[in-house]
Specification:
Blueprint (H helix, E strand, L loop, with lengths): L1 H11 L15 H22 L14 H23 L1
């Protein structure tokens, strides 16, 4: 589940004009830290410079607030899933 959440965050980055190049050889914790830093950098850039109207291939760009809600919901949903499995 942790890898799935990390991979989803990496994918969501494209929706706020962020980029991320995964390193399959990296340790999980290091890759998670890199992912979080890329998210922070993309959010900072979006706040400072705004977001493009669409992605480089015409894809939808999410408002920053939506990105945060979506990423937060995704983590919360999986926390609940883990709790349900442990009961």
């Amino acid at each position: 589940i942790l890898e799935h959440v990390r991979d989803a965050e990496q994918g969501y980055l494209r929706r706020i004009a962020g980029t991320f190049k995964a390193d399959p050889a990296a340790a999980f914790q290091a890759e998670m830290q890199r992912t979080h830093q890329a998210v922070l950098d993309a959010l900072d850039a979006g706040m400072a410079h705004g977001l493009p109207r669409q992605g480089p291939r015409g894809g939808a760009i999410w408002p920053l607030r939506y990105f945060l809600r979506r990423a937060g919901w995704h983590v919360t949903d999986h926390i609940r899933e883990i709790e349900d499995r442990s009961s």
